[in-house]
Amino acid sequence: MKDKVVIFWFRRDLRLEDNVGLQQAVVSGYPVLPIFIFDSDILEKLEVKQDRRVDYIYQVLDAMNSVLHTHGSTLYIDYGKPLAIFKTIIALYDVQGVYCNRDYEPQAIKRDELIDSYLKDRGIQFNTYKDQVIFEKSDIVKDDSTPYTVYTPYSKKWKSLLAPQNYASVVVSAEHFYKTNPLKITDLEVLGFQKTDIIFEKPNLELEIISDYDKKRDFPALDHTTHLGIALRFGTISIRSCVAFALKYNEIWLSELIWREFFMQILYHYPRVVTDSFKPKYDSIIWRNNEAEFQLWCSGKTGYPIVDAGMRQLNETGFMHNRVRMITASFLCKHLLIDWRWGEAYFAQKLLDYDLAANNGNWQWVAGCGCDAAPYFRIFNPTAQTLKFDADLSYIKTWNPDYEKYIQIPIVSHEEARERALRVYKQAL
Fold this sequence. Notes:
Layout: E1 4-10, H1 20-26, E2 32-39, H2 40-43, H3 52-70, E3 76-80, H4 82-92, E4 94-101, H5 106-121, E5 126-129, H6 151-161, H7 207-210, H8 213-216, H9 229-234, H10 239-249, H11 251-269, H12 291-299, H13 305-317, H14 322-335, H15 340-350, H16 356-367, H17 382-389, H18 394-399, H19 414-428
Parallel strand pairs: 1-2, 1-4, 2-3, 4-5
Helix pairs in contact: 6-11, 10-11, 11-16, 13-14, 14-16, 15-16
């Protein structure tokens, strides 16, 4: 006789506490078998095998598994295509239901539809829940039931509908996990990846950072940002705890969390933005797409110190300060007239906190082609931005200490680049 269980499938919610789908599985009345799938369709696309994000996930899973062991349970981890792995699990257990939290990316939606169809054919319910956002899908829409495509009215509606029950934490009992012998996680090398320098630490909400986030967030040398992007991306922290904290201590940080949800609902309602401009007329822009200049941008050798500092920080650490992300992205699209999709793909490869919705939304914002975008004639001047946000060059000297070697030969002059961008954009539009 196979053991009766329900499955909880961890995806973008790697925590045992304050987890909606996991809590629902726990109260189902059946022992909960927690699983995680290293999706080969995703991992095989990662060309660099020393990927900090994969290592981060691996360390998180190891920590979760240790906790489960103390409760006489274990985490079932496998590598491959999700459908094939579900076939294996269903052969081993009498599965009474599958529980997980919803994902809103187009590929994830297709994956879940495939799994749902397979389970349904076998009389197994596929139960999904809202967990990684406060409001999802069509929770926040205009009076005519169409999605918002401008942030400010979306944000106002979001705040007007917010109630304490939306950000109340949920309690997960550890007593209802499936009891079994502990399983060790497969070595990272077996997955085809290598150990990196990243060290997972349980994320914290730091009052010192968040209380004056609005005053210091734009100055990269201060490094006064939460660094919670990767935790929110992989769900090692609950969005509900973040919103509760932001409501108490800093409205500007709350607005950043709302931006995250705004871009998620844009991606959900308009999945074409993955490959196309939100505003179709911007796809008429004739990009220069000079590959040599793109490589200079990637390696931080444009001759603009703050741009080069940002790219070097990204290449070395997998992180770049948000203000500098805007400057470097604008430089690529406007100064070099290189397609925003090239920059988006490079950031996707390098960023620890890479999130499709946010990365896509922010790149289209900078390029002027997205919803609620910066107008095309807004072109960041890297020198003016440096004077405003890194006047003493502290950030530049940290990440681009040899900047003086390069400032004599900038890749293009700001004024010439600006005029060229305005001309090319105007012709296209």
